[in-house]
Structures are given as C-alpha cells and as structure tokens.
C-alpha cells in the first residue's frame, strides 16, 4: 500500500517512523510520503489561508495550493519515483463533518493499493477543492468522532494506524487479528498478567484454572457486562445478530439493560 499525506505540519506525522508502522515501512509493506502544502504556494509568505467568504470567524484554506498538490498526486509517477506504478489514490479528507471512521472502513481502506490524506487546518478547506478532486478520484470526508480537533493530522495518524496493522505481514501474531475479526459488536474482555497478587488484588481465579471452556464462558460474560454498562448502544446490534441464551438475558438484566424484543 502507498499512503500520501498533505499537511502544513509535516512534523506532526513524525510518529509514523516509530513502532509497528515504522517497522512496516522499513520492511517495504507500506510506503508513506508526507508533503508540505506550503511547497505548493508561489508567494513570498507561502500563504495557505484567507478570510471566509460570507464572513464569520477564523480562516479557510485557499484552494490553489491544494489543487496543485493533488495534481501532483494524480500525475503518472505520483510525485515519487517509487509511486510510479501506483494508481490514482482514494482521497480521505479528515473533517468533523465526515462519515464516521470505524473498523469496517479500516478493512475497506486496507484493501486499497493507494490512499491519500488532505489534512486541513483553521476552519477547513475551500469546498471546491473536494468537488474538483471528485472529478478525478474517489473523495471521502471522514471523521474520527464527535468532538472537535484543530486539524486533520491526528485523524490521519489514527486512521493510518488502524489500516496499516491490517496489512498482511504487519501484525506478527495473525492470531490476534483473527480473534478481533470474530469479536463484532461486543467490547473486549479484561486482561491480566503476573503477578497473581498485586497490591492485594487477585487475578480472577478462573483464569488460572486451565479449564478452557470455563475461561471462554467467563470472558464472554465479561464482554457482555462491559458492553451493557459502557456501550449500551452496541447491544442492539449484537441482539440483531444473536439469539441470546437465558443466561445472557439474565446478565443484560443484571446490568440494567432494557430488553425490547418487539411485540
Ligand atoms: C480543520 C479540523 C477535524 C480536520 C476529524 C474530528 O474543521 C473545523 N471546523 C470547526 C472548527 C475547527 C475545525 C478544525 N479542523 C481541519 C480539520 C477538525 C479534522 C476533526 C475531526 N477527522 N474532529 N475534528 N473528529
């Protein structure tokens, strides 16, 4: 996979050299290029912003540098000799007004040969940039969640981390990915390690029992309880795909979840 990121703060993306993503890059499993939007300006002050049309607070990113950098990313050779054979990218535009990013979207993006991020700042990017880009590439405004960030860089980092760990060969333990893929709708169970007693707190006894069926049942119960307490919104989706046992219904009642099984 090839990933291009356009930003006025290239150093914000420095963490992409570290840890799992850094290793994946060095192994040639993913190619990441960061581009400074100001390199696509032509005035002495390298201006990227201007006052909003129609008035109002803050500044808006001017379209011209965006047009030029996107031209470059679409050009045959895609800006970098190593991107020469890469197809036109799918353009992801982080925005509080975008489609919510989630795990299914991470899997979808992991299946693409090439993605690019347009990281805005200020009050965002002139809308014509997205409209014009959509005439030559797939454009997807995406949101990390319902809160306001100062720009798209943190969203790009989060999305890249979620996507790159799904690429073949990136996560060493393929078992952990397989386990996750079976975990739809419910939160994870709590995990423990040594020592068996820490500050007077014990690791739950069942986990030392070696009784795999009992351990699996306990973990499932923990997932259901946690989800009902912390993310009751997820329970409806789980119920839509599972016929709950009497035991599971009892757990949901204990956690105060209201059953609405229709008429
Ligand atoms: C500028 C961003 C996010 C990109 C994601 C998320 O866009 C704005 N609108 C009003 C006030 C401030 C901004 C700041 N801003 C570019 C930009 C915010 C992304 C963003 C985001 N993805 N919250 N905020 N979940």
Q: How would you describe what is shown here?
A:
- This protein has 263 residues and is an alpha/beta fold.
- Helices cover 35% and strands 16% of the residues.
- The protein has helices at residues 19-26, 63-74, 103-110, 127-133, 153-164, 174-181, 212-230, 232-241, 246-254, and strands spanning 2-7, 31-36, 49-50, 60-61, 90-100, 114-118, 139-143, 197-198, 201-202.
- Strand 1 (2-7), helix 1 (19-26) and strand 2 (31-36) form a beta-alpha-beta unit.
- Helix 3 (103-110) crosses helix 5 (153-164).
- Bound molecules: ligand JQB.
- Residues 94-96, 98, 120-121, 123-124, 142-145, 147-152, 155 line the site of ligand JQB.
| Distance between the amino and carboxyl termini | 49 Å
Molecular shape: elongated
Major beta sheet, strand line-up: 2-1-6-5-7
Number of helices: 9
Low-confidence stretches: none
| Radius of gyration, in angstroms, nearest whole number | 23 Å
Bound molecules: ligand JQB
The chain-level mean pLDDT equals: 94
* Main sheet attributes: strand count, strand direction, barrel closure: 5 strands, parallel
Helical content, roughly?
25-40%
Per DSSP E runs of 2 or more residues, the count of β-strands stands at 9
- Following the backbone from N to C, one meets helices and strands in this order, namely EHEEEHEHEHEHHEEHHH
Which class do the helix and strand fractions yield? alpha/beta
**β-sheet strand percentage:** 15-25%
